Amino acid sequence: MSSPSRSPSIGYVEQVILLALVTSLIALSIDAMLPALSHIEKDLAIQDPNGRQYIIGMLFAGMATGMLIYGPVSDSTGRKIPIYVGFTIFLIGCLLSIFATDVNTMLVGRFLQGLGAAGPRVVSMALIRDEYTGRAMARFMSLVMTVFILVPVLAPGLGQLILFVADWEAIFGAMFLLGLTAFIWFFFRQRETLPKPDRVKFSSDRLWLASKEVLTTPTSLGYMILSGFVFSGFLSYLSMSQQIFQDQYGVGDMFAVYFGILAVAIGGASLANSALVMKLGMKTLINRALWSLTVLSALYLGVTLFTDGSPPFWSLMVFLLLSFFCFGILFGNINAMAMEPLGHIAGVGSAIISSVSTLMAACLGTLIAQTYNGTIMPLVISFTGFGFISLIVLYITNTKTQDN
């Protein structure tokens, strides 16, 4: 297989920032509109208070669907064309959400946003895998995550600021403008990383064989499932966060500030991981972070039970800060481990892994969030339960890998 030549038009730092922006469309689509959920619920006449969570869940449903398509196509057409298509669908979804006057139209718009953003998200992983392997790939992904984390830090604040001067529709307008900016930057600056001689004609037989390889490779299968369970816990938080902060604890407009503070923990962990992974390796970091997250959650579950589901707000913030640091270590390393054996089928491999883990999270995380009852009990139970399940999956995966 030939190696793509490095273009002098883009440097390492610029590429990190660009791919972080390209992959941030999902985070932007979630976090910027969180402060507006109660406004949307009122304007679109959503009756069930937990019904607002579907505005988040539909985005991930669209994302999971799109991920199955873009990766295999990118192996045939190159990496850039599927990303162009994804950007276009995302922008259409933004426009549909802007002009939504009922909840069904909003959900369709959100589905299209997820379907479109899946292109930049999943193909960017394959693009990175084209150029980097092993710990260098994990380091690059961690740096991308570090820049990427500025979006969840700043996006809720941006959404809240927009609400001070305009209606919630303007938030989707801001998403449209940022998506368009990323599209233009990517079009002119990012090189194609899959040369024509290395492209493979798309066929259903090849897709089936590649999918079978992903699902029968112990490392890829195990870490894909592990990613799904870890992501499920995190998605349950995303779905419940606005209700927990604003409805349960009454933080009001400070929600954006607290949400951003917690996002910094993930960014700090990702930055630390970019250095630690070169010394300790991915498996060690995954093991330590997952054990820390699970034990911490189990201990805090006791605190939550003792306080009838409403522990002091300061303790919740400490718990979430520590938990999110663990998430920041886990996300990049788990994805890198899952992709490591799949360099020769990076596109379809990225598609299967991302789609399955996201679909798991969309189903399980939303299911947990729908049990929200005015306390943080469902959230802490999800962190604890998914943590223990993930440890079992990690043990089985590492055992099978050692046997091979």
Write the layout of secondary structure elements.
Layout: H1 12-23, H2 25-31, H3 37-43, H4 54-77, H5 80-98, H6 103-131, H7 134-148, H8 150-165, H9 169-189, H10 204-216, H11 218-248, H12 255-280, H13 282-306, H14 313-339, H15 346-369, H16 377-403
Helix pairs in contact: 1-7, 1-9, 2-8, 4-5, 4-6, 4-15, 5-6, 5-9, 6-15, 7-12, 7-14, 8-12, 10-15, 11-14, 11-15, 11-16, 12-13, 12-14, 13-14, 13-16
- Strand share of the residues? under 5%
CATH homologous superfamily assignment: MFS general substrate transporter like domains
- Count of DSSP E strands? 0
The helix-and-strand class reads mainly alpha
Reading off the top of the CATH hierarchy, the class is best stated as Mainly Alpha
- Poorly predicted runs of 5 or more residues: 1-8
End-to-end distance, in Å?
A: 25 Å
Helix content: over 70%
Spatial extent as radius of gyration: 20 Å
- Provide a count of the helices: 16
What is the string of SSEs from the N terminus onward? HHHHHHHHHHHHHHHH
For this structure, the CATH topology is: Growth Hormone, Chain: A
Mean pLDDT: 87
Q: In this structure, how is the largest beta sheet organized?
A: none
Identify the CATH architecture: Up-down Bundle
The shape is globular
Number of self-contained structural domains? 1
